[in-house]
Design a protein that fits this description.
It is a single chain. With 92 residues, this protein is α+β, with helices and mostly antiparallel strands. It has one domain. 39% of the residues lie in helices and 37% in strands. The chain has 2 helices and 4 strands. The chain has a 4-stranded antiparallel β-sheet.
């Protein structure tokens, strides 16, 4: 009986871990236009800056840091996952 509970707990915890990974490990995204770009789902500002530079280069411009916004999104089982958005201006 103890072994059955152990197997049950492994399946339960594996499922919860997958939900957390789905929320926190999404692919980084650059959304923007010729004037500015917002970087989503990055681990740090340096990764965001690299993505912003690549976006602004498409418009023959340079990325300049504007702001970072942080908020918590509710996740399953009452957990809160912080998300950060980095905003850059594309200047000539």
């Amino acid at each position: 009986m103890t072994r059955l509970w152990g197997v049950f707990l492994v399946f339960l915890l594996t499922g919860c871990a997958q939900d957390a990974l789905d929320l926190c490990c999404e692919k980084s995204v650059a959304l923007g236009n010729r004037e500015n770009v917002t970087i989503l789902h990055t681990w740090n500002a340096m990764d965001a800056r690299t993505m912003a530079e690549n976006h602004c280069k498409k418009h023959a411009r340079t990325a300049v840091y504007n702001e970072a916004k942080t908020r918590s999104l509710p996740a399953n089982q009452g957990l809160f996952v912080p998300t950060r958005r980095y905003v850059f201006d594309c200047v000539e």
